[in-house]
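Quick sanity check, DNA polymerase-3 subunit epsilon:
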Amino acid sequence: MPLSSKIRHLDFTAIDFESAGSARGKTDAPVQVGLACWSMETGHHSPYHSYLRTDRPITWSARKVHGIRDEDLLGAPSLQELWPTLRAALHGAIVVAHGMGTEKRFLRAFPGHSFGPWIDTLLLTRAAFPELPSHALSDLCETLGLSETVSRFQPDRQWHDALFDATASLVLLEHLLTRHELADRDLEILLHPNLTRWSAHRRS
């Protein structure tokens, strides 16, 4: 995708994973995935979520965060079984995540998938609002008055639900693009945000 593409014409797909939690001697595993789509031309659409089967028990600390239980995963597909769904949703889209490290790590289960380019709303908000004490997704949405909007799109869900968080990433992105009048700027401006002011705030 050309980096000179205008933002107003692009399709964005957010992805979020919730995990089983880290346990000694074992790698982490995803237990829920959420996907949501948005563009300036079509608005918010095509929400999707699924629990994910894993051979890892969910740790107490992870369950305390997202509330997902081992019994919720009974009959759920594995991440590999959802490959056609993920490919259809992410192929050709600008992929959005808040703190994209976890999402990129779990998608390594599909070598050579070539999803992207990626936009990290955590980095964007650090660049746009360096003075804020927290850039956690829920804190940002509360501070910027966006939580109600997210709840309107996902009324039966809450923070640390994969679909709720994926939707929140897009609501946050929409807010940033509108507030800073970026619709007619090139995609490239979102890929490498300038974090100089945020770094200066941290040092001070």
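Posting the structure with no commentary besides this: The chain has nine helices and five strands.
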